[in-house]
Amino acid sequence: MKIFISADMEGISGVATNQQLKTPSEYQRFRKLMTADVNAAIEGAFNGGATEVVVADGHGNMSNIIIEELDPRARLVSGNNRVMCQLEGLDESFEGIMFVGHHGREGGSDVTVISHTLAGICVEEMKINGKVVGETEMNSYVAGAMGVPPLFISGDDAYVKEVQETLPEVEGAVTKRAVDRFAAELLHPEVARKEIREKAEAAVKKAKQAKPLVIGEGPVTFDLKFKGPQQAKMTTTLPTVELTGPKSIRFTCDNMVTAYKHMWGCVIIAMTATNGVLGSVNA
Ligand SMILES: [Zn+2]
C-alpha cells in the first residue's frame, strides 16, 4: 500500500512564528523538527500497513526536510520547480494522502498559526467552484481526482477544526493550541509526535474504507483574489484568465488536475509580479 505525505512547516510541533522559519540559525532547528514530525508520520504509516511512502516537501523553497535524517524507508520529493506544486509525485497508484505540519487558510474563521493560502505574499482567497478552500482542501480535491483519499492531518487545533468541517473523517493530530497568528501554546515535540504516530497508524489502517474528496464531473472554476492589483493583472497574460475585479481573477479548466496546475501558474506569476516581474531575475 502506497501512501503520499505532503509536508509543510507552519503546523510542525514547536513552530509559533514566521521568524523561526526565516532566521537562518533558527531555521536549521526547525528543519530538524519538521523532519522528526514527518518521521513520526512515516512510522505510523508503516505501522498501519503502508509498504511504500513518498514525502513531498511543500514549504517555502520545498527543500527543508533533511534527507539524511529521514526514515530510510521513505522517498523524498525535494526542490521547487514543480508543475504539481505540493503534490509532485502523486498519482493513481497511491491509496491515501496525509498532510503533516499544515496550517489554516488565509482569512479563516478562527485564528490559526501562520495562516495563509499557498503564498501569503499574494493570495487573499481561493475558491474552487464557488467554495473557499485552504491548501489541504484544495490538495485533497486534486488527490480525489486521482482516486486518492485524504487520511490524516497534523497542525494546530484551529487548523484541524477548519479542515474537519470539509473532511470530518480524517484523523487529526493536534501539535499546538493556536493563540494568535504568531503565537501558540506548544506541546513538547515528543508528545506531539506520539499523537502523530498513533493517528497516522489508525488512519492508514482505515485507508481501504476512506473516500476521496471529489469535485464532481465537469469543468472546474477557480476564483483567486490577490492582495495587490498588479498581481491579478499580470496573470491576464494567460488567455484563459479573466479579470473579475481589480484584484480578482477567474479561469475554468476541463478537470481538477489541469485546474490545479493553472492555479499554480497564476500564483507563480502573481508572486513575481509583486515588485515587478523582472525585478528579481537577471534577464
Ligand atoms: Zn508552508
Summarize the structure.
This protein has 283 residues and is of the alpha/beta class.
Description:
The protein has helices spanning 19-22, 24-47, 135-145, 157-166, 189-205, 229-235, 256-273; strands at 2-7, 52-57, 74-77, 96-100, 123-128, 131-132, 150-156, 171-180, 183-186, 220-226, 242-245, 248-253. By secondary structure, it is of the alpha/beta class. It folds into two domains: 2-117 and 135-209, Rossmann fold, CATH 3.40.50.10780; 220-273, Gyrase A, domain 2 (2-Layer Sandwich). The chain is globular and about 50 Å long. The chain binds zinc ion. Zinc ion (ZN) binds at residues 8-10, 59. Zinc ion binds next to loops.
CATH homologous superfamily heading of the largest domain:
Dipeptide transport protein
Strand order of the largest sheet: 3-2-1-4-7-8-9
Q: pLDDT average, as an integer?
A: 95
Structural domain tally: 2
Low-pLDDT stretches are none
Strand content: 15-25%
Say how many strands there are: 12
CATH class of the largest domain: Alpha Beta
Binding site for Zn(2+) 2: 8, 59, 103, 135
Active site: 116
Protein name: Peptidase M55
Binding site for Zn(2+) 1: 8, 10
Keywords:
283 residues; alpha/beta; Rossmann fold; Gyrase A, domain 2; 2 domains; 7-stranded mixed beta sheet; 5-stranded antiparallel beta sheet; 7 helices; 24% strand; binds zinc ion
Write the layout of secondary structure elements.
Elements: E1 2-7, H1 19-22, H2 24-47, E2 52-57, E3 74-77, E4 96-100, E5 123-128, E6 131-132, H3 135-145, E7 150-156, H4 157-166, E8 171-180, E9 183-186, H5 189-205, E10 220-226, H6 229-235, E11 242-245, E12 248-253, H7 256-273
Parallel strand pairs: 1-2, 1-4, 2-3, 4-7, 7-8
Antiparallel strand pairs: 5-6, 5-10, 8-9, 10-12, 11-12
Bound molecules: zinc ion.
